[in-house]
Amino acid sequence: MNFVIISGSRNPEGQTAQAIRAIQKGIEDNSGKVETIFLPAMKIERCRQCNDNGWGICITEGQCIIPDDFAVITAKICAAKGVVFATPVYYADLSESLRAYLDRLRRTLQYQTVNLGIKGKRAIGVCVAGGGGGGAPSCCTSLEKILTISGFDVLDMVPVRRQNLKTKLQILEQTGAELVHGR
After folding, report:
1. Quick count: other Cβ atoms within 10 Å of Cβ 170?
2. Where are the domains of the chain?
3. What is d(CA 128, CA 120) in angstroms, rounded to the nearest whole number?
4. pLDDT band for position 1 (cuts 50, 70, 90)
5. CA distance 114 to 35
6. Distance between CA atoms of 31 and 42, rounded to whole angstroms?
7. What pLDDT was estimated at residue 167?
8. What is the model's pTM?
9. Which end of the chain is more exposed for a tag (fewer CB within 10 A), N or C?
């Protein structure tokens, strides 16, 4: 069973990375294989809202005209059994790299044949706040809304604060196991 983790974090050793490693352990301990994609290391442009109506071939063909890594990442998500979206929290919201990717994904998923690869796919969201940590719940709400609109079956949204990271790592490991088993 293959799973994909989409990370909006630039820091491969930071708090979000620790959360990712806990989920990865839960998946791998339950016979899953994991590929982690670090969006800041990929070429992902923001949506151009191609025509005067704010759309392009995303709405008519389920594709994006921008020649970057978007299509490769989306194909990996479609091929996976489940996906984890993990982001550091900035200003109570998603990282810019995850926002740019998800803004384009939800547009292409308005086209029916592309959505067939995503609709009902199990997903987990993890929002990790440093600093005071107060923005994690708001970030989870934003991420859940986007994933639900996109057609994912959202199994869990996990808000994490710098202050409770150690405790949440155990929960995240179990959440990874639940993703494998579909609970």
Report:
1. 11
2. 2-181
3. 25
4. low
5. 21
6. 28
7. 95
8. 0.95
9. C
Per-state percent for the chain, helix, strand, coil, to nearest 5: 45, 20, 35
10 Å CB burial of residue 76 (0-12, 13-18, 19+) is middle
Distance, in Å, from the CA atom of 119 to the CA atom of 109, rounded to the nearest integer, reads: 9
2-181: CATH number:
3.40.50.360
* Residues comprising the chain, all counted: 183
At 21 the pLDDT is 98
In the block, residue with structure tokens 């489940």 = 82
C-alpha 39/C-alpha 76 separation (Å) is 13
Q: Spell out the alpha helix ranges (H) of the chain.
A: 15-28, 57-61, 70-79, 96-108, 112-115, 136-150, 165-181
Block residue for tokens 């708001």: 138
Contact 8, 97 (CB under 8 A): yes
Q: Tell me if 129 sits within 8 A of 162, measured CB to CB.
A: yes
